[in-house]
């Protein structure tokens, strides 16, 4: 049941207690809330002082009743000074505050049982941590008091007043949100933790890399600096320039058609889109995941390649470079499509950046030729998606046979 205690006629505290609770235990709770020791408290109910040994039910205290607490005037002023708090809830003299609480065995036993976090801060040597907890508790109490005042105001508000109805509606909605949040904390706490993306160790042309595995990325991507470090920039085909769209835009410098990558102890052939993107070193995209029949096994936390012939574990957070985990580097705003040139062909290529879902690949119609749409139709009839067909034709400058081979091989 809930009872309200009026402190020295100027402060109200609501306590959730059992009806069979002893008065002494109620005083112990008040000691934590008010920093007034049990010995300095006098509790009154209906004008009569109640003894520590009494139980609430025995003296007639019911749910919603009001008790009054008066501090003993003969208490030590030095003790009061030790417990003095600033307006933000922090201790005026944190060292003296800490020593005073430590010296009160009854208070410490209550804290260890009911508030272990605060008790550990008192027993520890970090004054700043103690002060931060005091400020946090003060803020929580202020917020709770504000909510109680708002609820009380709504109880006595005119139910036919439009503004009051809006406030009541907002309070009901917020209550539902708070209950949903509390349920999530209990049943789905992992939803509040940061999800670490999937990385594996690979070697590209003999150079070890941390590869970002992203099934939401349309193509496998390597940055210019990474390609240079791996000795692959000399193979860059600049005919495949363009612009990649995802979260922000990046310039496509070209394509490296084939290079060896090592996953586990097995070598595979891989092709890359080369981006001028400092925030993405190497991304293992859907094209190569499909080509090499990869399985993202989240149960065993491994990437299986070649239908399971090779299994490599996904890296733990501690093994991923901190620069890869810097989320601010991936927070660019979406930008519109930008056209680039590839020899005599204009193209605007949309590829995902940083794990965002891909857009379609679009080509300028001026240089596609009259039979371009017929090629698309023919390949689509073979069972491939239109977007994939357009991309394949663009990769092979409209060569229908090479595009078909690429699609069947992927």
TrEMBL record:
GO terms for biological process: proteolysis. One of its GO terms (cellular component) is cytoplasm. Keywords: Aspartyl protease, Cytoplasm, Hydrolase, Protease. It is found in: Cytoplasm. It comes from the Eukaryota. Its main location: cytoplasm. This is DNA damage-inducible protein 1. It comes from Kingdonia uniflora.
């Amino acid at each position: 049941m809930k009872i309200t205690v009026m402190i020295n006629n100027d402060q109200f505290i609501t306590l959730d207690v059992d009806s069979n609770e002893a008065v002494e235990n109620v005083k112990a709770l008040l000691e934590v809330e008010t920093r007034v020791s049990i010995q300095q408290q006098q509790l009154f109910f209906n004008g009569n002082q109640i003894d520590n040994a009494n139980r609430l039910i025995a003296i007639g205290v019911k749910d919603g009743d009001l008790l009054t607490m008066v501090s003993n005037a003969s208490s030590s002023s030095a003790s009061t000074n030790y417990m003095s708090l600033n307006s933000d809830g922090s201790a005026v003299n944190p060292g003296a505050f800490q020593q005073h609480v430590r010296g009160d065995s009854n208070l410490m036993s209550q804290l260890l049982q009911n508030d272990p976090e605060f008790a550990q801060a008192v027993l520890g040597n970090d004054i700043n941590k103690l002060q931060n907890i005091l400020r946090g508790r003060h803020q929580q109490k202020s917020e709770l008091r504000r909510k109680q005042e708002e609820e009380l105001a709504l109880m006595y508000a005119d139910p036919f007043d439009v503004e009051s109805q809006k406030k009541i509606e907002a309070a009901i909605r917020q209550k539902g949100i708070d209950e949903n949040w509390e349920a999530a904390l209990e049943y789905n706490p992992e939803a509040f933790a940061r999800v670490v993306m999937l990385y594996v160790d690979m070697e590209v042309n003999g150079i070890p890399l941390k590869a970002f595995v992203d099934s939401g990325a349309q193509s496998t991507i390597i940055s210019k600096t990474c390609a240079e470090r791996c000795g692959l920039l000399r193979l860059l085909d600049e005919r495949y320039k363009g612009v990649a769209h995802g979260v922000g835009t990046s310039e496509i410098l070209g394509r490296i058609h084939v290079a060896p990558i090592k996953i586990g102890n097995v070598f595979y052939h891989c092709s890359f889109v080369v981006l001028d993107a400092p925030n993405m070193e190497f991304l293992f995209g859907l094209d190569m995941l499909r080509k090499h029949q990869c399985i993202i096994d989240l149960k065993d936390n491994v990437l299986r390649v070649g239908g399971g012939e090779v299994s490599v574990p996904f890296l733990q957070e501690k093994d991923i470079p901190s620069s890869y985990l810097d989320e601010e580097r991936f927070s660019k705003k979406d930008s519109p499509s930008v056209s680039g040139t590839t020899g005599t062909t204009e193209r605007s290529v949309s590829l995902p950046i940083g794990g965002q879902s891909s857009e379609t690949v679009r080509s300028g119609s001026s240089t596609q030729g009259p039979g371009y749409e017929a090629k698309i139709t023919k390949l689509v009839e073979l069972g491939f998606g239109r977007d994939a067909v357009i991309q394949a034709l663009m990769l092979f400058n409209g060569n229908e046979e090479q595009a078909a081979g690429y699609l069947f091989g992927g």
